[in-house]
Protein 1
Amino acid sequence: MHELETRELRYFVAVAEELHFGRAAERLGIAQPPLSRAVRQLERRLGVRLLDRDRRGVALTEAGGVLLREARAALDAVAAAARRTRRAGDPKRPLVLVTKAGASHELLRGLLGALAEEPGAAPVEVLLCEVGEQAGLLRDGRADVALMHRPYDDLAGFDTEDLYVEGQIALLPAGHPLASRERLTLAEVSDVPDLPIARWPRLDGTYPDGPGPEVHTQSQLAQLVALGRTLLVIPASSRAWQWPGHVAVPVVDAPDVTTVLAWPPKSHSPALASLVRAASCLRPPVTGRHD
Amino acid sequence: MHELETRELRYFVAVAEELHFGRAAERLGIAQPPLSRAVRQLERRLGVRLLDRDRRGVALTEAGGVLLREARAALDAVAAAARRTRRAGDPKRPLVLVTKAGASHELLRGLLGALAEEPGAAPVEVLLCEVGEQAGLLRDGRADVALMHRPYDDLAGFDTEDLYVEGQIALLPAGHPLASRERLTLAEVSDVPDLPIARWPRLDGTYPDGPGPEVHTQSQLAQLVALGRTLLVIPASSRAWQWPGHVAVPVVDAPDVTTVLAWPPKSHSPALASLVRAASCLRPPVTGRHD
DNA sequence: ACGTTGTGATACCCGCCGGGTATCAGGACG
DNA sequence: CGTCCTGATACCCGGCGGGTATCACAACGT
């Protein structure tokens, strides 16, 4: 019984994502028949039916769903192996830190500043990404360490260090009736007829119900806010979002947001170690500034 | 540029572990020349030198060490994908719980008992392993959930639930001078000339220095204890080790041991969820019994 | 000094399998 | 009832993974 090969996993993932052999084959740059054969062979090897071929398209079986999740993780691990090995051979490899564009500006400035003080200062390359992408970048080796935010980001499977805890504020157009309030509650901001809260995709990629617009990039969101078309509840420090004509009002019962440093477990890089050390030394003054 | 294939990773891992192309080839069941070629091709693909061929054997480069670690993780992930998918197709799949042989007997009994009370009682298969093997079994999909012990086991990358905190005791032959003591300290037990403490391999596989015997299986250890050749400091609940002719004395300053339930993050199995729920309901009475 | 031994690298051949094209089979439409 | 559109099948071909035989070279023996 042969072992699984990454090629088979890639093929299956393509089919499982497209739910269409033709499109999947096109995406993979091969013809459809070999793809059908490969998936069939994979099913024979595993002794499990992965797809229900329904003459009109394809559907995942329960086992297929499991394999889709597991195969993505495995492919990420393989990609990470390649990337980290290549970078280990590079003598002047910078540490790649990834964070959501627009979040934790001041904290990141402080962190990089503190790291520059360190004697053996490894260079740090900052990579900006969209919401929810950090975990994937960390898992497949494109980044070494991430700034993430609990409870909104998926921290499963990473080692973490808490850096900063803060409340959240609502961002409102200056002329709005609620803009003059001293404080707000979630109930008050979640049901404003003329300013529906934007809906972000959940961890599984689906959108919650509601009247607000669906968004998945920060630039979309920025535009909506600038147009006064949506209400935003964000961590208090994200003042980068403070456009002219908008005001921030604390939302007292919104859950606190913790900014955490996250990295894959078992990382042995000394550069990462010094960054984590710098971060944990940095913490007291930063959290102190919060008061 | 082709992607990495698991075959290449398996080949490299074999060579990196054996540090000898001939033996590695034998282990893989292939001839030596194709193995040399495959590793060479892997180096070309990654653009990194992985091995220093020194006419007399082979040594890992720094990048090679990185790849060895990453490749093992990736291969575990691939193996886990296959195993979990096969088991997802099996309608009457039991949940596999792994624990160190001889540890946490009573807690495990209580846990299984509590789970049997549950209405939708999924069958649980208990798998016993040697010290330090749980993480690997969990990572490569041979087990779904593990009982592990902080701070001794490697919990990196798993979700966990604390179940039980306890102190440790020293196990001594009944006639030994220290056996009549009410309590002991680590300093006292760590330097007993006639009863050196056994040395376990660390997480990286090397052994600490010291006068005691090297052990890596529990049966070895059991024999050494029965012969009165070694002194053992273990969690208080591990009374299964209580042979005739031995007594347990509390070691007051030994670190507390926490028994935790651990499982791979992102597990969606309802059977696992009910086990975790049963465990967390079980916790108060169990920790209460500790007093 | 020279053969011996043991290492990994090279040369070369072969069979299998992954990939291609052409075609089939069978529901969903009009 | 033809026309799509789906995935499955049939078949061929080239490349690559695997084999055997051999080389190059260093560390040892005598």
Protein 2
Amino acid sequence: MSEKVITRFAPSPTGYLHIGGARTALFNWLYAKHTGGKMLLRIEDTDRARSTEGAILAILDGLRWLELDWDGEPVYQLTRAERHRGIAEQLLAEGNAYRCYATPEELQEMRERARAEGRAPGYDGNWRHRDPSEAPTGIEPAIRFKAPREGETVIEDRVQGRVTFANKDLDDLVILRSDGTPTYNLSVVVDDHDMDITHVIRGDDHLTNAARQTQIFKALGWKTPVYAHVPLIHGPDGAKLSKRHGALGVEAYRAMGYLPAALRNYLVRLGWSHGDAEIMSTEEMIEWFDLDAIGRSAARFDFVKLENLNGHYLRTTPDKEIVERLKSLVPELPDGAALAARIGEDGWRKLEQAMPGLKERAGTLVELLDNASFLFAKRPLTTDEMASRVLDEGGRETLATLLPRLEKVEPWTQEALEAAVRQFADDSGLKLGKVAQPLRASLTGRSISPGIFDVLAVLGRRESLARIGDQVHASKTA
RNA sequence: GCCCCCUUCGUCUAAUGGUCAGGACGUCAGGUUUUCAACCUGAAAACAGGGGUUCGAUCCCCCUAGGGGGCGCCA
């Protein structure tokens, strides 16, 4: 019965689901899937001052967007406070905890003194042995766990290996605040036990917590879960991930135009590998993922590689799906409403038609959309610098002679257009590029675009001829 | 300050007590080409430093340096 693996993702809702949390969730999810187990979701909202409803929603949304599902209903830690309190009382009754009357000021002072004297700034255990009769009046005590003083606490970590802490370095932590609310380390132990969690996969910033939690598990006579502490993700400069370079919520990645499959693929390769495999399907990830293959060193976040991966997934995603994703993305963009109005039904149709050429050239959905902007541009087009240079006198003359030939093309298909333009280039003794570039500039306002015959076909006869005509006329009036 | 962890091309990583230290992204050079991409070919690019152990160390041990994490009545 207890053979089945149960992992959990346990974010605290004090902000969005950041990229490190997303990877932790992914690893928990993959391990659960790999072993045929479950992944539970627990919202660690015991810090009432900082937890927000919005953050909970953001985290749930982020997980859904990443397509990482969890088993059962999310457990809100706050709702279990009574149970946690009960265990604290039990620990107290069994002599594994004690009341501490130290005030915040006293603790502050103690820490400063310890630091000054070069000792670990932990609690000195003053109230561990003091008689309750000495308790000052008017002060509600906190309850502290009576941590072992001698010996060591050993964690057999699936990623970090055997990690040993001297018990003298681990102080008596508060398990129940003076206001009667449980603290993190107590809640985690009780919940992991009650939820039958078999594997705890989390960031290695929790490594020392694992030692403290192990002590509590032992005091309670409970079996500890298997631990796997994954190294953190750093910014490109090797320093802690800041908002500037990637500690963004996953919704920011969505807004930048990344695909969930690409982000998953990128994240799974940060700290974990399977031989030379780089691009892998979700099925392959599940099949191959294993705790033992997780590395022990921190990885730097690299947007360039993410974008490369995203480009790959863009190219292999069906056109219709990309259009759907764009439709939901556009309203969230700056000026999204206006953009959506400009695109319109007709624009979405053109977009899908032009998609094969567009997705080949983009790293993100946002870039793709920008590359596609010529599709919904209104005449007369504005031309960028490079396009203007192509549309010099010679370029416009070429267009002027080409225009009548194009007007005769029937039907207006890519094949017919290509044949006509190539024939024109031949007849004029011009290289195809000399014709294609002015054409491109007149049709898109840029020097870069999808294949020119695609552009012509998608834009349609009327619009294409009008845009070319605009340039020809400009040459006459100039 | 104390405790814990980490260190292979710029980045993500593989591998091994004896290898030309492999792959991917990026970079550079070619090819292809209507532009840009994509794609193909090729190149440059790493075992942090110092001691051991060993016939032989990137790999095992120690030290140093550098980086990271933790040290709350936060989670």
